[in-house]
Specification:
The complex is a heterotrimer of chains A (188), B (98) and C (604). Chain B is 80% helix and 0% strand. Chain B has helices spanning 2-22, 26-51, 55-85. Classes of the chains: A mainly alpha (188), B mainly alpha (98), C mainly alpha (604).
Chain lengths: 188, 98, 604
């Protein structure tokens, strides 16, 4: 009974938070609502006896991603102090589709017999670490390579190209010319 | 109980999808995607507990790492988009039109 | 004596000439050396001759027929095989080919001695290739292999006619021979296709309702290969090749392949009376027509070429009337005496360096061996009693008379008279006539040019007396009897010789020459050639026009339609690519829902 009450609280908060994330007009608000949602997910992980993961969730998501998103918003605001434009597009159609997907999933969940439950008990961080370095070692290493690639890629994509190589005055013919933006935000 | 967690995850996923379809701002879209990835993580953890194995959480951690990477790349793209168009409205960026 | 089975002997006869041809083709220093190349080819021809002789000896003593095949293609309706079929028919033909080929190769040593060495080697390479091709045709266990050999000898014919390919007339003649026979060979190919669709095989023993179609198509090929009117036009031109080639291919063996086909496929032809009728008439007409043209020719090789057409006409007429024995026996005797005549004519030409009989004259005294063997051949051709041609021609005439084909019989009898007449003309002018200035320094060739003549003279002279055993080889019986037909033919033959003696030795009855003026005009005008040339061109142009129209307005239109449809479709489909990210997400979600719905409706 206690489990159900706890689940009900977590689930309700989660859903409200998620709803606000996708509907809030102010994007900064939406990010903050996302923070709530992610934190409540961490609480859900605790209920699911995944305490290590809950901590990770708070550290990585709620800490990292949220900060990242706020940076994104701030970097792309055209003018200081003006509310970030965040109008919605065609809500009824999107709602219909989302409900359809939800109905499909629910139908599938309710109509698929669950496999027999395994032994209960919490999974310790030690077990997770062991699993990373034995069964999933290759995936683990690949993931580190991926993160390196992402880091390099993100820098490469986002870096400004104002520092053209010396001696190359003007644009090379045949190359698509993108409008250059100077640091003040105006078109070059 | 298990099915309740799954339905909760489905609801989160659908909400994320709704956001994905309605947001015009690229950052808003990224937020929605984070929500959907989070829903997937919930499913992984719930099943890991159901089977009593560590794999669920291991996968969830993988997903988390990949999602963070994706957020970084996504933001880099958003910044690039902004630098070229002075806005981050995805509806306006239709250069790929056939 | 080697202890080999008949099959092994046959393999020897087949593969040794091929080996020789391949070696000569591949090892060019050997080929370009000339003399050694001839040696290689001659060894192959000798082995072939020995094998053929052993085989014939075996079959004369009643050896069992041998059939050995190996799978070649798995067809839709069964297996297609290649191999060797040994029976009386193939073994005797094998020996005929072997003897003539050997004689011709020996003769060529002297005849072509003045040729450049490279050309000499090339000549012998093709001679070896021809021997292999002809053997594979003769030994074929089914009609498909026969067809392969048929095409191969056609190729060799083309190559050997064009031996002096730098000479425009020779190159043209080679091309003409190739074209005309290829046109006719379509008949064989189509006939084989019809036969295959009806019987699922290429057996000549097959029984089929399509026999008339098949045999008529086959006969078209026979008309081309065996130079029957109106497809005879290539044979006189083929005389542009070296005379030994004319002796081997265009008198004795290759042109006889058409007749051989009819003999081989006799069970099929027996099912088609209509084809037989057609063959009798065309054969008889060719015999008469070609003989009358031969009368007015002044080129000794042309006389012999038209004579070959005419004699092949006799064979075809005989086979058409069901006288298979007569036709085949005449093929055999004709092969010997016509090869002899050609080689002897080659000797005469070699002596005076001219083909014109008026440039010869009185050569009998200067070239006794060549002259006398020529006379033996001429007498055999004229059907002089006792010579081989007399017996075989008698069989043919009896066969045609037996069928009650009186008009063809009359044609053949007149043809026999003309044959004797034109051969008499050649003999009385070239050998016995007044010596011409060209012939002043004429002298006999070396031993290599005498030996083949003497060898070939024997069967030309005496083969007729062995008609019984030879007929036995082919499962026939032969009893000599001289009916009124034979007597008439002999009398006409003697009359022809007599008339030629009066006209060309004694200089009398010159008024008769005028009677042949129209024939001469016809022969010179080349009317038949023009008819073909025009018909061919017009036909091809009409066909080409039709195909061009089809290509432009049907096939191109189809292509354009497909192109237009692709463009139109693409034009409509490009709207799908809006470039708007949201639309793509909608598409993904819609796809997910469709997949889910499908999974829900068809679980499992």
């Amino acid at each position: 009974m206690m489990a159900w009450i706890a689940f009900g609280i977590v689930a309700a908060t989660l859903l409200v938070g998620a709803f606000r994330v996708v509907t809030a007009r102010n994007l900064v608000h939406a990010v903050l609502w996302l923070g709530l949602t992610l934190a409540m997910t961490a609480a859900g992980y605790v209920l699911l006896e995944a305490t290590f993961l809950a901590v990770m969730q708070l550290l990585l998501y709620t800490g990292g991603v949220l900060t990242l998103m706020l940076f994104g918003i701030m970097l792309t605001r055209r003018v200081e102090g003006v509310e970030v434009p965040n109008e919605a597009a065609n809500r009824p159609r999107a709602a219909a589709l989302a409900l359809g997907v939800f109905a499909l999933f629910t139908w599938a969940i309710l109509n698929t017999p669950l496999p027999p439950a395994g032994p209960g008990g919490a999974v310790t961080a030690q077990q997770i670490g062991h699993s990373f370095l034995t069964d999933h070692l290759l995936a683990f290493e690949l993931l580190s390579v991926l993160l390196l690639a992402v880091m390099v890629g993100a820098i490469a994509i986002a870096r400004t190209r104002d520092h053209a190589p010396a001696g190359q005055g003007g644009h090379r013919p045949g190359r698509r010319v993108l409008p250059k933006v100077n640091q003040k935000g105006g078109a070059a | 109980m298990m099915q309740a967690w799954l339905i909760l995850a489905a609801a989160l996923f659908s909400l994320g999808l709704f956001g994905l379809l309605t947001r015009r701002n690229a950052v808003g879209i990224l937020l929605s995607v984070e929500l959907m990835a989070n829903a997937v993580n919930v499913v992984l953890v719930a099943f890991g507990r159901w089977h009593g194995v560590a794999d669920g959480q291991v996968f969830a951690l993988f997903t988390t790492a990949i999602t963070v990477a994706e957020a970084a790349i996504g933001l880099a793209l958003v910044i690039l988009l902004y630098r070229q168009r002075q806005d981050v409205l995805v509806d306006a960026a239709t250069e790929m039109r056939g | 004596m080697l202890e080999l089975t008949p099959l092994q002997w046959a393999q020897l006869a087949l593969w040794v000439p091929l080996l020789s041809a391949v070696v000569l083709a591949a090892v060019w220093p050997l080929r370009k050396a000339g003399g050694p190349a001839a040696g290689v080819s001659l060894v192959a021809a000798t082995v072939n001759l020995a094998a053929a002789a052993v085989l014939l000896f075996g079959w004369l003593n009643g050896a069992e027929d041998v059939r050995h095949t190996a799978p070649w293609l798995i067809g839709g309706q069964g297996l297609i095989e290649l191999g060797v079929h040994l029976d009386g028919v193939s073994v005797s033909m094998l020996l005929v080919v072997a003897v003539v080929a050997w004689g011709v190769q020996v003769f060529s040593l002297g005849y072509l001695a003045d040729e450049p060495k490279a050309g000499f080697g090339r000549y012998y390479t093709w001679q070896s290739l021809f021997l292999f091709s002809m053997n594979s045709l003769v030994l074929a266990p089914n009609l498909l292999q026969l067809f392969l050999g048929w095409e191969l000898v056609g190729l060799c014919s083309y190559l050997l006619i064009g031996y002096w390919f730098t000479k425009p007339s020779a190159a043209k003649a080679a091309l003409k021979a190739f074209w005309v026979t290829k046109f006719a060979d379509m008949g064989l190919l189509l006939g084989l296709i019809v036969l295959y669709t009806h019987t699922g095989g290429f057996e000549w023993t097959a029984t089929t309702t399509a026999a008339t179609t098949v045999t008529l198509l086959f006969f078209l090929a026979v008309m081309g290969k065996s130079a029957q009117f109106p497809l005879h036009i290539w044979l006189p031109d083929a005389m542009e090749g070296p005379t030994p080639v004319s002796a081997l291919l265009h008198a004795a063996t290759m042109v006889a392949a058409g007749v051989f086909l009819v003999v081989r496929a006799a069970p099929l032809f027996a099912q088609a009376p209509l084809t037989g009728e057609v063959m009798t008439w065309i054969g008889a007409f060719t015999a008469l027509f070609a003989a009358s043209i031969a009368v007015v020719q002044t080129d000794i090789k042309k006389v012999l070429a038209y004579s070959t057409c005419s004699q092949l006409g006799y064979m075809v007429a005989a086979l058409g009337s069901g006288a298979v024995l007569g036709g085949y026996f005449h093929l055999t005797t004709h092969a010997f005496f016509k090869a002899l005549l050609f080689l002897a004519a080659g000797g005469l030409i070699h002596a005076v360096h001219s083909n014109e009989i008026s440039h010869m004259g009185g050569l009998l005294k200067k070239l006794p061996v060549t002259g006398w063997t020529f006379i033996i051949g001429a007498l055999a051709l004229a059907g002089f009693p006792g010579f081989s041609g007399f017996f075989s021609k008698d069989l043919i005439l009896e066969g045609v008379a037996h069928q009650g084909q009186w008009v063809p019989l009359a044609m053949l009898l007149v043809g026999a008279f003309l044959t004797a007449f034109y051969m008499g003309r050649v003999v009385f002018i070239a050998l016995l006539g007044a010596p011409s200035e060209h012939a002043a320094h004429a002298h006999e060739g070396g031993g290599s040019m005498k030996l083949p003549l003497l060898v070939l003279a024997v069967p030309a002279l005496a083969l007729g007396f062995f008609a019984g055993p030879v007929a036995g080889l082919w499962g026939h019986e032969y009893h000599f009897h001289l009916g009124w037909v034979g007597l008439t033919a002999s009398a006409l033959g003697l009359a022809g010789i007599g008339l030629s003696w009066v006209m060309f030795a004694k200089g009398g009855a010159q008024g008769l020459l005028a009677a042949f003026a129209p024939v001469g005009a016809l022969a010179r005008s080349g009317a038949v050639d023009r008819l073909w040339a025009t018909g061919y061109r017009q036909g091809l142009q009409v066909l080409g026009g039709a195909i061009a129209w089809l290509d432009r307005y049907v096939i191109d239109a189809l292509m354009n339609l497909i192109g237009y449809l692709s463009l139109a479709l693409g034009d409509r489909l490009r709207a799908v690519q809006t470039g708007n990210v949201r639309d793509y997400v909608y598409a993904v979600v819609a796809g997910l829902l469709l997949l889910g719905a499908w999974g829900a409706m068809f679980p499992g």
